[in-house]
Write a structure and sequence with these properties.
With 284 residues, this protein is α+β, with helices and mostly antiparallel strands. Among the domains are: 103 residues, 2-Layer Sandwich (Pantoate--beta-alanine Ligase, Chain: A,domain 2), CATH 3.30.1300; 91 residues, Orthogonal Bundle (Ribonucleotide Reductase Protein R1, domain 1), CATH 1.10.40.60. It is 43% helix and 16% strand. It has 8 helices and 7 strands, in the order H-H-E-E-E-H-H-H-H-E-H-H-E-E-E. A hairpin with a 7-residue loop joins strand 6 and strand 7. Helix 3 packs across helix 4, helix 3 packs antiparallel against helix 7 and helix 7 packs antiparallel against helix 8. The termini are far apart.
């Protein structure tokens, strides 16, 4: 067999090195392209989420404008109806809820808590666990009630019991016995606002009335159901005093194809003052 000249061997090694280098560069390029695609997809997702969020904020501004100007269509939402409209490429669902018709979870005792939890679908042992755990969360001591939970129970989850009032409806989800489904069912008729005006059955839904144990009982529930179905007007706004100072929850959900959903909720109080027509108590 005839031997190749030395320079041929060198050329062969050079060719192998070149091919190997090309393979390395190709691999690096593939990684860069993949990372770029991932970053691009992430950026597109963040942009879509931001657009939906901005649309929800636009819905909040629309609701506030209607409240401040006592727009009839907006005020009608306080009967429990829902407004739907398209805005900035998203479909908005806007709901207004008067906080005076909600059960203040930080100002009720065990019997009301039990009725409230019953309205959320809990009974028996499940109710007892949620009831005692809520009371333990709110009280200042570290002694657990028979079905409750204190610091040792939450330690493994890295949670510290508040030993005070619940600060948000979402916080309920950290309390033993309050599943996401239970919190979702409570959200429409409970509040955590310490400074909210006293409960008024005039603005309450059937669930809140049942929880409070309003003396008007079934009659009040029937009347409110009629209001919610649009058979009669729930609230009149001819007198400015009827809406000034009232805490109102504005719930907005924005949805768009390819952008997902964004939920925005704010508790606002109308002041009746032209310079500062409203105050935002809480937004989430």
């Amino acid at each position: 067999m005839k031997a190749l000249p030395p320079d041929a061997d060198e050329r062969g090694f050079a060719l192998i090195a070149a091919v190997a280098s090309l393979a390395v560069f190709a691999a690096i390029a593939l990684v860069v392209i993949s990372a770029t695609r991932i970053d691009l997809a992430k950026a597109q997702g963040e942009l879509a989420s931001a657009q939906t969020r901005l649309a929800a904020e636009g819905g909040l501004a629309i609701a506030l404008h209607g409240l401040m100007n006592r727009d009839a269509a907006t005020l009608a939402l306080l009967d429990g109806r829902t407004q739907e409209l398209d805005f900035a490429g998203s479909h908005l669902t806007i709901t207004l809820i008067d906080e005076r018709g909600k059960v203040n979870i930080n100002a009720i005792e065990a019997p009301v808590i039990e009725r409230m939890l019953s309205e959320a679908g809990l009974e028996g042992q499940a109710m007892a666990i949620a009831r005692d755990s809520l009371l333990d969360w709110q009280d200042s001591d570290d002694e657990a009630l028979p079905n409750g939970a204190e610091a040792p129970y939450y330690a493994r989850q890295g949670i510290t019991p508040r030993n005070g009032g619940v600060q948000s409806i979402d916080e309920l989800g950290t309390i033993r016995g309050f599943t996401p489904a239970v919190v979702a069912r409570l959200r429409p008729f409970v509040t955590v606002e310490r400074s909210a005006v006293p409960f008024s059955s005039r603005y309450a839904g059937p669930q809140a009335l049942a929880a409070i144990g309003d003396g008007r009982g079934a009659i009040a529930g029937i009347e409110r159901q009629r209001e919610l179905s649009g058979q009669r007007t729930a609230i009149g706004f001819t007198d400015p005093a009827s809406w000034t100072g009232r805490p109102i929850t504005v719930h907005v959900e924005a949805a768009a194809p390819g952008r997902g959903r964004y939920r925005l909720e704010a508790i606002v109080e109308l002041t009746g003052k032209p310079a500062h027509p409203y105050v935002v108590r809480r937004i989430s």
